[in-house]
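Aim 2 progress. For Tetratricopeptide repeat protein, the working sequence is reproduced below.
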Amino acid sequence: MLVALAAVPAAWWLLPHDHGAAAIAGWHPALNPPPGEPAAAQAAARAVLRSAPVNGQAFRVLAQNAEADSPASQALWAQALAWAPRDIDTRAALADQALEAGKPAAALQHLDALMRVQPALRAPLLEQMLLPELGNPALRTALLDHLQADPPWRPHLATLLARQTQATAGAEALWQQLAARGPLAPAELQARQQQRRLAGDAAGAYQLWREHLPPTLQPYLATVFDGGFETEPGDTPYHWRWPRQAGVATVRDDSHARDGQYALRVEFAGRSLRFDGPRQTFGPLPAGTYLLQASADNRTGNPRAFQWQLHCGRQILATLPLADSPGWQNRQQGFVLATPCNEPVLRLGHAGRTVPERVLRGSLWLDSVQITRQDP
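Predicted structure tokens for this construct:
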């Protein structure tokens, strides 16, 4: 059973309620009887209608004070909606009635209108009313129909779904049915991946990313995706990403590649810093024996090594120091993974410890980063 709108404290508190004759006080300030007096409210509403016969708020006040579910009440609500379709209390009351009657499609018509005219209501209405009810097939179908029209609150739904730490059958069904009706937006794909990761399904998140990878990027699939930096960085953890850092500029460069067309060039401006370099999250790695290898052309002159490190949570699985002198040089390091790692992360750092050792200037070129399994 869907909860009524009045049972959603965050949403209900945001509504600028106009109970009784307060709804029309702006039209006739003198007609503002104390709340809880139906006769006075009705008199005030009728007074307004004599001078403004198409005032939807006045019809709503009459409907609120009429016998519930009576033909007269329904007619008044219809008038209120017809003449004031953007009135928040009218939409809220009609959504309540539809929810209590078990009519989610009708309720969503009014909730959609509420979220359009009051953006501040989007998060509480979606999070507290709709997300817990995604297991209701009728509501889910109605929600899908609205999402098909690409309402302005659709991105908010994806964001809230991404924050769920527990996967639900209703949410997964919504994602599947939404994808069946048309391609998900990039932000929605990321939200679905993030939700799976938060729910502890790293394998499912990675598989979802692989399934939706464009055909032009499929050739770069390997344990390390695009280890030659031939493609642009992406918005998911499974692409290369490099944080912005003062004193560091990181770009793909086609003028000095070791393999392929591009290499990654990191320029340092001579500042002392804790270098936070490129990183990438992988799909699950099974237990086994592996080889980590990479090429570098180090023109920084710094005595401390740049190094790739493979992490599983807080555990360091492998460390690969790179060349400390100019010219392309390949380095490799074998390692044994005793137990599977669900979400390994490879990142580049610098071994400098003291302030002088952390002063970085010049160029570092990177290419041909690979992890290959050595045992069958």
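Residues 250 and 266 are 4 Å apart (CA to CA). This observation will guide construct design in the next reporting period.
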